[in-house]
Amino acid sequence: MDISGAGIIGTFFHAPTREKLEVLENVLIRVDDAGTITDIHPAGDSMRTLVEAELGDRLYRLPDGHYGLPGLVDLHIHAPQYPQLGLALDEPLEVWLQKYTFPLEARYADLDFARERYAVLVSDLLATGTTTALYFATQHEAATKLLADICIEKGQRALVGKVVMDDPAACPDYYRDESAETAVAETRAVIDHISNHPDNRAGRVLPVITPRFIPSCTDEALAGLGALAEECGCHVQTHCSESDWAHGHVLERYGKTDAAALDAFGLLTRKSVLAHSNFLTDEDMDRLANRGAAVAHCALSNIYFANSVFPLRHALEKGVHVGLGTDISGGPSASMFEAVRTTVQSSRMLAEGTDPSLPASERGRPNSAVDLITAFHLATAGGGIALDLPIGLIAPGYRFDALAIDTTAHTGAIRLFGETDPNAIFQKLIYGATRPNIAKVWVDGLDRTP
Fold first, then answer.
1. In the predicted model, what is the mean pLDDT of residues 413-418?
2. How does strand 163-164 pair with strand 59-61?
3. What is the mean pLDDT of residues 216-243?
């Protein structure tokens, strides 16, 4: 059932800040025709009876045992890599790209190949609760446009970018942009396609300028994309200081860090999202905070490729905007619930350390752990802040992007055993939710349940 131009009654959880979980118990949420929440009425509100009467049969009630959450925001997905999810995780990043990933991505020149895989990906992500996705596509203009078309058709909120990788010294002959000029021109063509798409007048799908990362791009391409970002005001996404190799490459090439180099090219803006960023210095973090740029923290893929644990709590305390990403397929799970859980787990490993031969006082980085509420906030409201979009909260003025979680699903993994404490229920939702538990998915109040 669509909730746009209607209302819904139920209990919802959201985290307006990383310190606070709010339980909206038995509330009535009214949503306008555009999918924006207009007002929320708790039980006993004097206006609620009037609103219920006004909505009549346009009022939906969550069934018993169902709870609402804001839609999940995934800030880092390599859409073409979905077919190798869970595979090829046995090599360092620089080998993994050349041996496995570039050959797979090159196949998306075949639009039939691309259409089947992209359609499955978008449906699967909606089914697992990802209502907003920030996508790296491939180097191909046509296939990138196709991914945007599929997101528009299926109703997912998405940001889609053609990957720029033009440096012949770093990119294989069979998979790279012909030149910096071609890369920028094709990026502009994708921006125009998405912005002028007749079925995207609501702007649910947005273009994003996407240099793969500095090691794959010439200076000319990076400068051209920076100028394009200033011209169009589009979002920007790239990788930043992901691994020892990637971080070291930029230091050797420019004598400065990724963040400083990206800033010099005009690619560090309020709408920039930098994936990974494990090796940010304090100066880098200050630079991101000053620009309003964000980090897409990909805790699961960092285990495989980043050579370190991102100091999440430190970045937050420095004022950096942070959201979460799965990093399909560097991360072997497409679930943002898994991203939330791994964020908590990896922060505790950083705090407590991993080498048992060291005394406890020397083993970890103190005050690095984050809790479940913080991680949940980052996967919802934090993602919205990173993208500068009104998503991730159940509040007036925000889009009704939401999930209904069915705790009674026998094939799911949530078992309440009569639990009634809202805080305990919330923990079970986040730690236990699997695909069968996700009963409904709404984007802009429209039912997008696959």
1. 97
2. unpaired
3. 97
**Distances from the Cα of 194 to the Cαs of 137, 154, 199, in angstroms?**
14, 15, 9
Mean pLDDT of the chain: 97
Close Cβ partners of 342 (under 8 Å, ≥ 6 residues apart): 299, 300, 303
Asked whether the predicted pLDDT for residue 320 surpasses 90, the reply is yes
Q: Rounded CA gap, 16 and 392, in Å? A: 9
What distances in angstroms separate CA 357 from CA 43, 232, 353, one per listed residue?
56, 54, 10
For the record, the structure tokens of 47 come out as 């206006």
Q: Where are the alpha helices (DSSP H) in 155-198?
A: 180-195
* Residues 269/275/279/280 CA torsion (nearest 10 deg): 20
Higher pLDDT, 246 or 381: 381
- The pLDDT score that the predictor gives to residue 90 is 87
What sign does the dihedral 67-438-443-207 (CA atoms) show?
positive
What is residue 263's predicted lDDT score, i.e. its pLDDT? 98
Residue 88 has pLDDT above 90, yes or no: no
Residue 247 contacts residue 279 (beta carbons within 8 Å): yes
Rounded distance between C-alpha atoms, residue 74 and residue 188, angstroms: 24
- Which of 389, 377, 380, 379 is closest to 35 using CA atoms? 389
Q: What angle do the packed helices 180-195 and 141-154 form, to 10 degrees?
A: 20
pLDDT digits (tens, 9 = 90+) for 304-316: 999 999 999 999 9
Please report which confidence band the pLDDT of residue 93 belongs to, taking 50, 70 and 90 as the band edges. Answer: confident
Exposed e or buried b for every residue in 338-364, given b needs 16+ CB within 10 A? bbbbbbbebbebbbebeeeeeeeeeeb
Q: What values do phi and psi take at 76, rounded to 5?
A: -160, 105
Residue 112, SS3 per DSSP: helix
The set of residues, in sequence order, having a beta carbon less than 8 Å from that of 321 and lying 6+ positions away, is 288, 289, 292, 293, 294, 295, 382, 385, 386
